[in-house]
Design a protein that fits this description.
This protein is 34% helix and 27% strand. It has 757 residues and is α+β, with helices and mostly antiparallel strands.
Length: 757
């Protein structure tokens, strides 16, 4: 029994980080933990074979079977795991070149859910820590855990799922902390201290943390910007004459209720917390600004009613002068408040991001490409279900295989037929294929056949793997609703490229069964399929000794080749054209009719424009609820926001022209020959012309950029000389689920054939 204090060095690699669930404060991850400690070399060497002893002497690692049954180990566990983890544990031994001591290395691969406290004070500019805490069942009088100073922890950024919502930094922090434990056995009940119930025994814990920053542009435009515009429009009420108090209060109350409803809509996407986020604080301050404006409009109307004859005021009335002073004070505070907020935002929440970027720059690493198929977002179940058949073939030694076959099988091979091989993997080499972008466990059926190739008369082994299950895919929604989505299956090998190289089969092309496509009403599945080979760097635990390992680059030199086969589906976007773009266009178009209301009827102009503005904002949030949470603006987002700014500009102009009419006309009236009316008509012509020209440029851009991708897809289909499938669909289909709702987009492949070597 080991009674000494053993120092265990811990290193952790985040192999894959899945969905970050802010509502439930947890995240999915797959990690590899390497714990090593020094042991008595004489005792262990006596138990090893001569070959293993020679391997150790040569500086190689030696695998240890059933090590824990007869040897001491630190009894590692994960402190912040949620539920049961999937674990695979193996032990190796190796002699260190640094101190010539024998080290035992426990390599623990884990996969599951982990709890993490999410600090949302600075939402949506927050930076979150995703950590895994490694602890020992033994106290610190037996084991002390330390971060491994020679072999740095790291994170595989290429396997980060939530890239559309989060930015994963390259650097990783590892720290040791100590926790006190309640001790029930070491102290007798008569000797137990009454003032301190915590025992003296402690545990050491190593916490390895990676960092993610929320991609916050979505919330800036759909949160801060819309709240700012609602509050900004409320100040136009100051230009309604104080005698029309009821119109002022009506518009202000409508904006106030809209702002409150908008706040609750945003809060539904956040976890229940007991403190205010930055967005909460900004929204509440703007609500108070609306309330103060409403109270002032009431007071100004009361003073006008109390101290004027017939409830009528002129620009020279003292009530109007006080009203203008109140406007200058409130609007000035609003402007300076927003400027101060921007300065605080730059120097406090965003400062942490600059610190993280500096740490990344010190590592001399580059951001992973955004188009890597291994990275995708799964915020609202952006995944699809499919059934596919994968055929992989490789050449083998014909003499060895023929010696194991029966005479009938040998004759079948000679006749050019395929021969079924039962239990082939038990005694023969195979590439150990797996599906890289699978979600959960797949249903698989694998069979092996042999056939003599007509090209080189060699025997090819063919692995036919039928799979069915869920696959994750990164959905690019920049051009929504004219987007074309790639649905891919990535085939990889457990062996590195010094053992296996995967290539797309040039003789037998991959394909897709279009007749088994489920959701033809919402998606158009193209006939052609693309297959490409790519290479990924892997974290290497064995090939580099700890003393020779570079400390500035945690990625090993070994690589894997992956074959990704992709089919393409284009969204049937006519529904969104008519119910999205068209309705937003009509709302904005109808707002220009307010220019034909006489300028002295400013109240009617502002009320109509404000109603259309609030309708447009509400419509935007209704459309966004059918989309996954993404950090960027889609084509429809940009179009909707541009139209909202157009509506705000119209409201401001109506306020300004009404003020000019009230200030410089007797009895607050107008006629077609007044300069205010002529100026108003010029403003209408300019504003409406910009509106029309902008739509012309938008249509041209739509044809030249988003729809150009569809034309390229159609050309590739035409090159295959294939016709579109009939409307009749096969019954043997499976669904691809892209969204959680029942009307979500569903795509299926009954047989997506992946031909790989």
């Amino acid at each position: 029994m080991n009674n000494k204090v053993t120092t265990v060095y811990v290193r952790l690699i985040f192999l894959r980080i899945g969905e970050i669930d802010t509502l439930n404060e947890k995240y999915q991850a797959q990690a590899s933990i390497e714990s090593r400690w020094a042991v008595d070399s004489e005792q262990l060497l006596a138990e090893l074979s001569a070959d293993d002893q020679q391997s150790l002497a040569d500086g190689k690692s030696v695998s240890l079977q059933k090590y824990t049954e007869s040897h001491w180990h630190p009894q590692i566990y994960i402190e912040n795991a949620l539920g049961d983890l999937k674990e695979q544990i193996r032990y190796t031994a190796k002699i260190s070149k640094h101190d010539n001591r024998l080290y035992i290395c426990e390599q623990r691969d884990i996969k599951g859910l982990f709890w993490e406290k999410l600090e949302l004070q600075y939402f949506p500019s927050d930076v979150q820590d995703l950590s895994i805490s490694v602890a020992s069942m033994l106290y610190n009088d037996r084991v002390i855990l330390l971060p491994d100073g020679d072999r740095k922890s790291g994170v595989n950024r290429e396997a980060f799922v939530d890239q559309q919502e989060w930015n994963l930094y390259a650097h990783v922090d590892a720290e040791q902390r100590t926790t006190a434990e309640f001790d029930f056995d070491s102290t007798d009940q008569d000797d137990r201290p009454t003032t301190n119930i915590v025992g003296e025994r402690k545990r050491t814990i190593v916490t390895v943390t990676c960092h993610v920053a929320r991609r916050s542009s979505y919330f800036y435009w759909n949160g801060y910007c819309l709240i700012f515009l609602i509050t900004l429009v409320s100040y136009t009420c100051f230009f309604i004459p104080p005698s029309q108090m009821y119109n002022r209060i009506q518009v202000t109350c409508t904006l106030l209720l809209t702002s409150i409803t908008f706040r609750w809509t945003v809060n539904r996407s956040l976890p229940t917390i007991s403190y205010l986020t930055t967005l909460d604080t900004y929204g509440i301050v703007c609500i108070f600004a609306l309330v103060v404006s409403g109270i002032w409009h009431t007071l100004a109307g009361y003073l006008t009613f109390e101290y004027t004859a017939n409830f009528v005021v002129t620009p020279r009335s003292w009530q109007v002068k006080y009203d203008r002073i109140a406007f200058c004070v409130q609007f000035g505070l609003f402007v300076f408040g927003n400027i101060a907020f921007l300065i605080w935002l730059h120097f406090v929440p965003l400062k942490q991001r600059r610190i993280m970027n500096e740490k990344d720059a010190a590592l001399h690493v580059q951001k992973p490409g955004s188009k890597r198929k291994i990275s995708e977002i799964d915020t609202l179940n952006e995944k699809y279900q499919a059934q596919a058949s994968i055929e992989s073939r490789w050449a083998v030694d014909s003499e060895q295989l023929l010696a194991e076959l029966s005479a009938d099988d040998q004759q079948s091979l000679a006749d050019g037929k395929s021969v079924s091989l039962l239990k082939y993997t038990e005694s023969h080499w195979h590439p150990q294929l797996y599906i890289e972008n699978a979600l959960g466990d797949l249903k698989e059926q694998i069979r092996y056949t042999a056939k003599i190739s007509k090209d080189d008369t060699k025997i090819d082994i063919c692995e036919q793997r039928d799979i069915k299950g869920l696959f994750w895919e990164k959905l690019e929604l920049y051009h929504f609703p004219t987007d074309v989505q790639d649905l891919s299956i990535s085939v990889a090998s457990m062996l590195y490229n010094d053992r296996v190289v995967l290539l797309p089969d040039g003789d037998r092309k991959s394909g897709v069964n279009r007749e088994a496509f489920v959701d033809q009403q919402e998606w158009n599945l193209y006939a052609h399929v693309d297959a490409e080979q790519r290479t990924t760097d892997e974290f290497d635990f064995e090939s580099i000794d700890q003393d020779d390992r570079p400390t500035t680059n945690i990625v090993g030199a070994r690589k894997r080749t992956i074959v990704t086969v992709t089919c393409h589906a284009a969204r049937e976007s006519s529904y969104f054209y008519w119910n999205g773009f068209c309705l937003i266009f009509l709302i904005t178009l109808i707002s220009y009719t307010c220019y034909f209301i006489p300028p002295h009827q400013m109240v009617n102009r502002i009320q109509t424009s404000s109603t259309l503005l609030l309708t447009s904002i509400t419509f935007r949030w209704t459309v966004n609820r059918s989309l996954p949470t993404i950090s960027y603006l889609t084509t429809m987002d940009k179009y909707g926001i541009a139209c909202i700014f157009s509506l705000v500009g119209n409201v401001i102009w109506h306020t300004f022209i009404g003020y000019l009419t009230f200030e410089y006309t007797p009895n607050f009236s107008s006629n077609p020959h007044m300069w205010q009316v002529k100026t108003d008509r010029i403003a209408f012509c300019v504003s409406f012309s910009i509106f029309i020209l902008a739509h012309m440029f938008f249509v041209i851009w739509l044809l030249a950029v988003p729809l150009n991708h569809r034309r390229k897809m159609n050309k590739k289909d035409a090159a295959l000389n294939l016709t579109k499938p009939k409307g009749k669909r096969s019954l043997r289909v499976t669904d691809i689920e892209i969204e959680r709702s029942s009307s979500s987009a569903r795509i299926a492949d009954d047989a997506m054939n992946l031909q790989t070597i």
